[in-house]
Specification:
Two copies of one chain form a homodimer. By secondary structure, chain A is mainly beta. Chain A has one domain: Beta Barrel (Hypothetical Protein Pfu-838710-001). Helices cover 10% and strands 46% of the residues of chain A. The first copy, chain A, contains two helices and ten strands, in the order E-E-E-E-E-E-H-E-E-E-E-H. Chain A has a ten-stranded antiparallel beta sheet with strand order 1-6-5-4-3-7-8-9-2-10. In chain A, strand 7 and strand 8 form a beta hairpin. Chain A is globular, with a radius of gyration of 16 Å. Chain A starts with 8 loop residues before the first strand and ends in a 9-residue tail after the last helix.
Chain lengths: 167, 167
């Protein structure tokens, strides 16, 4: 789901594949939009996220996976409300990243370049409709991390990339 | 805040006075709308409420009191989304009540007749701008319970009226 989905929507199956990137070959392919996001709730089975994407606020509720789909609801909200909630109601720290949407063939890649406590981490995501769908991987795509929970945005808030080396 | 406030809004000072009712004299004065509401989060300092008022869904975020005001944000959402969230994501039980808006003079009274596990409880609320504002109390108004936390809707979910006698 991108920040262009401005209408309230509940989503059926959402399969996202996530990769690290090997080099900066993607940088010339898209323009970035700054994102700030935090969580009012961030627990197993339920997340309520507040996001600012560019100049638009969003509130998103994500539920547990039920069958093959995850309940997800996203609503546009006023920028000023989103700012107030991020500053006053969300658990710190606030996740900051620049998102670069890049269309290659029929696929929309979203490159997230993280800032703040997650600086140094760059992740590429693509949404597919079928887990076994073949994907043409651009040459800047590296290791797949789809199933590594450390890379979930909700977890990058709790345990940011800069602290991974401390284990 | 009533279900007629359909625009996203953050509120400044909200002072609500709450009373029990002595008799049914209010019943002929207004028509009721069924409400169902539940909480995605319901903790000290933060509540995220999902409400259906008549045929309209709402999502409301309420923060802690900061100074004299409480951060509050309410957004209309599709009825089907609200139903799904109440059925799948909110902590049971779901609070059910019939709300009767009644205008007397310049004041809007809201009578909440609770159902389900809170059946038997009827509460009248009025919003004022100043704690010391004089109010003409209708003759069906009984004991004031503004400062009794048992009557907070958020608490009526956790500890419903029907169980109060068990203490």
């Amino acid at each position: 789901m991108t920040h262009n989905d401005i209408y309230p929507t509940s989503m059926a199956t959402e399969i996202e594949r996530k990769f690290l990137v090997k080099h900066d070959g993607w940088r010339s392919l898209g323009r970035g939009t700054p994102y700030r996001q935090g969580y009012l709730v961030n627990q197993k089975g339920l997340a309520v996220r507040v996001r600012i994407a560019g100049e638009q606020g969003y509130m998103t509720v994500k539920g547990a996976t039920v069958g093959v789909s995850r309940l997800e609801y996203e609503y546009p909200i006023p920028l000023s409300d989103a700012r107030e909630m991020l500053d006053n109601l969300c658990e710190p720290p606030i996740l900051e990243k620049i998102r670069y949407p890049i269309v290659i063939g029929s696929l929309l890649w979203e490159i997230d370049e993280f800032l703040g406590e997650n600086q140094g981490l760059i992740v590429a995501e693509v949404e597919v409709t079928d887990e076994n769908q073949a994907i043409d991987l651009p040459d800047w795509i590296g290791e797949e991390v789809s199933y590594d929970p450390r890379y979930y945005n909700a977890n990058l808030v709790k345990f940011p990339y800069s602290k991974w080396s401390e284990i």
